[in-house]
Write a structure and sequence with these properties.
Length: 325
């Protein structure tokens, strides 16, 4: 039986989501095929947490653990860390150096997609529609007036790295822009200011299985808040419809764009790509790419797998097996 390290936790505010994802994933791994060992990476260290018994430190020389006096070397890593260091390429680079397979995108793609501005720049270069935006750095202050000379209100202001919509604001009037910048800079040294695109919001799970790119049933998100913020994402302030009620032309347009982004960014494993569909122009605009998407019971990917008629057990088996291919 293959030994799988289920790695959760993380070093950012997204750790709380990582722990929820790890519960869903852990509950749905096929234990007849895989032996699962839970690893928690957090600010206090890297820990192996057995079901029964004391937690112990992971040996970082070869990413091994000791279980009941036996040394365990893993066959693969199932990544369940949102944010750093599991979604930004750091752990991927470490596992690459150990020749240890893992379930997410590689180090380069993970690092690229963790930077929202670089992601949209590469996507635009590859012919994907994206919103006009500015990339700001803490060490080079830019005034609201300079921003609004280049972008039209309303705009979104968000930390450039990270996810879960922490530190994000929608700005409708010039007077609110500085406060939104300050809020985003509390979370990150880089900030993305992006023009608002009016349209319908969709999120799409994409997965490569046996060399075929599969698009999961599309989810439409209608938020009760002004935008799909942390509260809307994780505290029930949004409605998610899976599969989305859309016509065949819109569905094909979104699926084609999602597959193109997956190919263009050289993705692996399951990723979630967010789009706004501009109904006036009749085309999708890519917002961002999540290379370790949430897997809690309420998260979009489990919803989409169920809507497809699949079981989470079979799905996570395919995710793990793809790491070996």
């Amino acid at each position: 039986m293959k030994k799988i390290a289920l790695v959760t936790g993380g070093l950012s505010g997204e750790a709380q989501i990582s722990y929820k994802s790890a519960i869903t994933v852990g509950n749905n791994i096929d234990r007849d095929k895989f032996e699962v060992y839970r690893i928690d990476i957090n600010p206090s260290g890297w820990w192996y947490e057995p079901v029964n018994g004391e937690k112990s430190k992971v040996n970082r020389d070869d990413f091994s653990v000791t279980d009941n006096g036996h040394k365990i070397n893993f066959d693969a890593v199932l990544l369940c860390i949102h944010g750093t260091p599991g979604e930004d390429g750091k752990l991927q680079g470490y596992f690459d150096m150990l020749n240890l397979p893992y379930t997410s995108c590689d180090a380069a793609t993970s690092a690229l997609t963790f930077n929202k501005r670089y992601t949209v720049a590469v996507a635009a270069f590859g012919g994907i529609n994206v919103a006009r935006s500015l990339h700001l750095f803490k060490h080079t202050p830019v005034t609201p007036q300079e921003i609004l000379a280049q972008l039209k209100l309303p705009v979104f202001v968000k930390p450039n790295n990270g996810g879960s919509s922490i530190g994000m604001s929608k700005v409708n009037e010039a007077g609110a822009l500085q406060a939104a910048l300050d809020k985003a800079f509390k979370e990150d040294t880089q900030v993305l200011v992006e023009e608002f695109i009016s349209g319908r919001e969709f999120t799409i799970g994409v997965f490569k299985n046996k060399n075929e790119i599969l698009v999961l049933p599309i989810t439409e998100i209608v938020t009760h808040n002004e935008f799909f913020d942390f509260e809307a994402k994780y505290q029930g302030k949004s409605e998610e419809t899976t599969p989305a009620k859309i016509d065949a032309a819109m569905q094909q347009s979104l699926e084609t764009a999602a597959k193109r982004v997956y190919e263009l960014l050289n993705c692996r494993g399951v990723v979630r790509i967010d789009f706004i569909y501009d109904t006036k122009e009749g085309k999708p605009y890519m917002l961002e790419v999540n290379t370790v998407p949430g897997q809690s019971e309420a998260s979009v990917i489990p919803q989409q797998v169920r809507a497809m008629g699949g079981s989470l057990k079979d799905f996570y088996t395919a995710v793990i097996e793809q790491a070996f291919s």
